[in-house]
Design goal:
The protein has three domains: 88 residues, Rossmann fold (3-Layer(aba) Sandwich); 208 residues, Mur-like, catalytic domain (UDP-N-acetylmuramoyl-L-alanine:D-glutamate ligase, 3-Layer(aba) Sandwich); 134 residues, Protein-Tyrosine Phosphatase, Chain A (Alpha-Beta Complex). 36% of the residues lie in helices and 22% in strands. The protein has 17 helices and 20 strands. The strands form three sheets. The protein has a nine-stranded mixed sheet with strand order 7-8-6-9-10-11-12-13-14. A six-stranded mixed sheet has the order 15-16-20-17-18-19, with helices on both faces. A five-stranded parallel sheet has the order 3-2-1-4-5. Helix 1 links the parallel strand 1 and strand 2. The radius of gyration is 22 Å and the shape is globular.
Length: 445
């Protein structure tokens, strides 16, 4: 069988490596330049590859093509693959065909990385043999090739779900839905939402689907779809006879037996993280992890980098890195959890953002807006009648200096950009690290 892998990043190299280990004929092609450490990996493992080119004839002669999630589904080469009827899969689809491990797959518009990391931590803390992968930055395919885990906890994006055929998690989890990546879904919110719901399309009645009962779009979609998996809801607004919910000062999970824990004992801050902790607790209970072990994990888990990450305090001003907030809904959660007057750093590549969602929070909680991007006009135009202090900056150094000069003792400086990072940075991680570097520099470190 001839396997062609498109894209020479983490997922592409992992898929090519798995194909090679399984004795399949494999060729990797990347239209851009491949990073040196990935080239070295491919060379060391004797995987044939090309960069800055697509050998169309060779690609279209494949039996199975594995596509990296970063390649747009409307790309010319993807259209040609579909025309020829060649099977086109994501790395998670490809790798899942070579393992019998139970997969816990997490998707949603916001909170995926935190919840995926938390579930992995709960399983690992309980002594289970578990791998962490998918959209979180570790290749699932490479782990399947090299390791022998009983469980995999995978963060899964809509782009990865677009290219599945048989992918069937033991537990699937859809945290929430908000308007994101609409440029890839014909600016149609329902089309994007349906892509997320593909996480459960191959599940059977011996599988589990955890969903957010408070989420409006999820409710609408569930009225139209027939889900075969056992559905378990969670809610922060209403008590449930089965599932996870908030009861006064506690989170509760009611399945075969009950789990209860005080909200103020959770290591993660913010209302949205109460929901994430509920979802993770349900997964733990399905896997029959005992209450004490789940409680211990929820108390000791450390927040992931770039997601409401405390950086330092300078002259009584807290600096928070939430660079992973690449859409308005994610920034909403960050702003909602702010307790003090906030200087908000926002901006980047706009993905069709509608800022009305955060308008009220900005009026109540934000004392100044510092725009960070090549083109800040849309943000300035939206907020100019609502906030007196709005500044435009075009580098992280300038944004941090401006924010520091505006913040007083007791304030918070929050980087929660609402936007993609690619105008000024390589990635949201690069943006977050530069923020931390500039903040520590401003503190004389």
């Amino acid at each position: 069988m001839k396997i062609v892998v498109l894209g020479g990043g983490e997922s592409g190299c992992g898929a090519a490596y798995l194909a090679k280990k399984k004795g399949l004929e494999v060729f990797l092609s990347d239209k851009g330049a491949i990073k040196d450490h990935y080239k070295q990996f491919l060379t060391e493992n004797e995987i044939e590859f090309e960069e800055e080119n697509h050998d169309e004839e060779r690609i279209l002669n494949a039996d199975w093509i594995v596509k990296s999630p970063g390649i747009p589904k409307k790309a010319e080469m993807i259209n040609k693959i579909h025309e020829k009827g060649i099977r086109l899969s994501s790395e998670i689809e490809f790798a899942s065909e070579f393992t019998d491990a139970k997969i816990i797959a997490i998707t949603g518009s916001n909170g995926k990385t935190t919840t995926t990391s938390l579930i992995y931590y709960i399983l690992k803390n309980d002594g289970l043999k578990v791998g962490l992968g998918g959209n979180i930055g570790y290749s699932f395919a490479k782990q399947v090739a090299d390791e022998n885990h009983e469980y995999y906890v995978l963060e899964v994006s809509s782009f990865q779900l677009d290219d599945i055929q048989n992918f069937r998690p033991y537990i699937s989890l859809l945290l929430n839905l908000s308007k994101d990546h609409l440029d890839q879904y014909n600016y149609n919110y329902e089309e994007y939402a349906l892509a997320k719901f593909r996480i459960t399309e191959n599940q059977e009645n011996d599988n589990f689907f955890i969903y957010n009962k408070d989420d409006e779009m999820s409710k609408n979609i569930l009225e139209k779809l027939e889900i075969k998996a056992k559905m378990i809801p969670f809610s922060t607004h209403e008590k449930l006879s089965e599932g996870g919910f908030v009861d006064g000062e506690n989170i509760e999970v009611n399945l075969k037996d009950k789990f209860s824990m005080k909200i103020d004992e959770l290591s993660l801050l913010g209302n949205h993280n109460v929901a994430n902790s509920l979802a993770a607790s349900i997964a733990g209970k399905i896997l029959e992890i005992n209450n004490e072990s789940i409680r211990n994990s929820l108390m000791t888990f450390q927040a992931v980098e770039h997601r409401l990450e405390f950086v330092t305090e300078i002259d009584g001003v807290k600096f928070i890195n939430d660079s992973k907030a690449t859409n308005v809904n994610a920034a909403y959660y960050a702003l909602e959890s702010m307790k003090n007057p906030t200087v908000w750093i926002v901006g980047g590549v706009d993905k069709g953002n509608d800022y009305t969602e955060v308008e009220d929070l900005v009026k109540r909680k934000v004392k100044a807006i510092v725009c960070l991007g090549i083109d800040n006009q849309k943000i300035i135009d939206f907020f100019k009648d609502k906030k007196e202090l709005i500044y435009s900056t075009s580098s992280m150094e300038e944004a941090v200096k401006t924010s520091k000069s505006l913040a007083k003792n007791g304030d918070t400086v929050l980087l929660s950009p609402c936007c993609a990072s690619f105008d000024l940075f390589k990635s949201y991680e690069d943006r977050g690290r530069q923020f931390k570097e500039q903040v520590l520099k401003a503190n004389g470190n």
